[in-house]
Amino acid sequence: MMIFFITFGFFLVIGTAMAVGYIFQNKTLAGSCGGLASVGIGKECNCDNPCEKRQAREKKAALELNLQNRIDVTNL
After folding, report:
1. Which residues contact 42 (CB under 8 A, 6 or more apart)?
2. What pTM was computed for the model?
3. Which of 10, 34, 48, 63 has the fewest CB neighbours in a 10 Å radius?
4. What distance, in Å, lies between the first and last C-alpha atoms of the chain?
5. What is the DSSP letter of 19?
């Protein structure tokens, strides 16, 4: 049990040191450099036939986009 406490304390000290170092740098958090697009993958699921859940999400997103871009002719 003593090894656990020593290891936990070590990780706690290292984590605190990294946090303090990051705070003193005055940088904001940033994402990775391009993500999957940098390796040539256009989407997370790079399959030709996505699953039903993904197809439903894409269909819902397309319908919402159409509703946002719709022109209401009754007010013209």
Report:
1. 36
2. 0.37
3. 48
4. 76
5. H
**Distance in angstroms (rounded) separating the CA atoms of residues 66 and 49:** 23
Residue 44 neighbours by CB under 8 Å, 6+ apart: 36
Q: Is 59 exposed, middle or buried (0-12, 13-18, 19+ CB in 10 A)?
A: exposed
pLDDT in tens, 16-66: 998 888 888 877 666 666 666 666 666 666 567 777 887 888 889 888 888
Which tokens in the block code for residue 27? 């940088």
CA distance 28 to 24: 11
- Is the pLDDT assigned to residue 2 strictly greater than 90? yes
